[in-house]
User: Fold this.
Amino acid sequence: EIVMTQSPATLSVSPGERATFSCRASQSVSSNLAWYQQKPGQGPRLLIYGASTRATGIPARFSGSGSGTEFSLTISSLQSEDFAIYYCQHYNTWPLTFGGGTKVEI
Amino acid sequence: EVQLLESGGGLVQPGGSLRLSCAASGFIFNSFVMTWVRQAPGEGLEWVSAISGRGTNTNYADSVKGRFTISRDNSKNTLYLHMKSLRAEDTAVYYCAKFSENEWWRPVDYWGQGTLVTVSS
Assistant:
């Protein structure tokens, strides 16, 4: 199976700052990579798919980049509602696998 | 508005069985691949199983193959997960989710709120 590795595990930032975190795949997943945001007690929400396309209703401060095995998610100016856990996931082959998550905290 | 409402979770003994349900609304149910993803307490996300729009094709994670069965009733807009031979390591919140299209290699675009399954004696 494809192993997805996210870094860092935790990112401490202040509101208004820029945050960037990474996701690495153990083998190429082309651009079949999604990013999700999860808040406590909620199901995940799709942010980015196709490595760089924002999902419906996602603010422009969220951007994704990369292809193959190296990907990143950037939040240009953190808002209070952005403090959450972020997961990457490939959908290139079975089984679908997720990264371990990056927790963005104040 | 897409809505996915899971039910059927609860406490079950090791070796026991349980059936989860997911009532879907707000989209044409039989036109999308549906999936189950689980999350153990305090842990990350683990994909469990997926089923095609007509229910003719399914896939499973190795960790549940032979023990879990995914199915759907398109006349009732409902997705199911039949779980047997449950183990302590199956304890998790189980999320019902939909793919963005009726194709395998697509992102999951909507998730439910989840239902908790606890396997313990």
User: Anything to note?
Assistant: The mean pLDDT of chain A is 96.
